[in-house]
Structure formats: structure tokens, C-alpha cells
Design goal:
Number of helices: 3
Largest sheet: 9 strands, mixed
Order of helices and strands: EEEHEHEEEEHEEE
CATH class of the largest domain: Alpha Beta
Structural class: alpha+beta
CATH superfamily of the largest domain: Alpha-L RNA-binding motif
Number of domains: 2
Amino acid sequence: MAFHYILLHKPYGFLSQFTDEGQNPGLNQLLTLPPDVYPVGRLDSDSEGLLLLTNDKRLNQRLLDPENGHPRTYWAQVEGIITEEALQKLCTGVELRINGKSFRTLPAQARRIEPPSLPPRNPPIRVRQSVPDCWIELTLTEGKNRQVRRMTAAVGFPTLRLVRSKIGDVELGDLKAGESREVNGSLFR
């Protein structure tokens, strides 16, 4: 069997599944793939960025195994100018409640960055003239539901826009929203 490895820049508003649901279109609106190719992991509909699709079940299992600690990097535009104290909390772990249970995030890498070169989001994020914003880069080795958004909110800086920029060493690069490209699976070894 031939393995396929496709990188997709998932646009805002799309689901990480092939079927449409309500007002949200599925990936079937963006690309046509062999029937056995599926997304590895998820990005919620209001997140954008790098999504890997493959039919390599061993790679899928390895990347999603919580014991593996495979890094994923995100760019988050947050409300307010993030403080060093908040960045340090993100780095050491944040206490969250997920499905009614208390959960402490694993240590992460977090730093403030210049705004990445991204096209404006459609629809645009809400802008409040009296509240500044900034961008941070977060690298996690775990992936709970809406974890980045929960983490930034927990330290007092809610996420306005979220883009996954890397999975391991594989980068979003110059893929535009909705574009995809097939790559060699050795990138994920």
C-alpha cells in the first residue's frame, strides 16, 4: 500500500473532518483524497494552520500517543500585552479544568514574537481600540481540547486568533489558507 502524507493549511471556520456540519464546511470542500486518508489530530473550527493528513496508521498512532510527547507549535494572537510572569506560567504549567476535572498542563515553551506574516483572517478578529494585542509562540507536547485557548485565558490573556505553525520539525511554511501539498513521510520519522 502506498502511504500518503499531505500538509494542509486549514482555514478558519473549517472542521477537521470531511463532512460539513451546520454552518461549518468540512475538508471535502478543500481537497479530494483517497478514501483511507484522514487528519492526524484536530484543529477546532476557529483555529487555523497546519494539519497533517495520512493513511499511515503507525505514524498517526505515534503522533497522537500522549506518552510520545510530540511537539506542536502554535502562534496565538492574545488580547493585551503578555507579561513575562504570564509567559513563565505557561512554561511551567497551568492549572485548568477540563470536563469538570482539574488538570495541570505539562511544561511548554512560550515566548513573545513579532506578528507572523499571515493574511487577514476571514472574518477578521474583533478589534477593541482601547485594548492592545500581541503574538506569542507556544510549543506543547500534549493536546487537550482547546488547550492553548484555555492556557492563555488562565494566565489572563485570551486568545483572539490561533494558528498551528509546526508539527515536530514540519512547518506550515508558505502554504496559504486552503492550500495543500504532498510531502515525503520521512519528514515525520
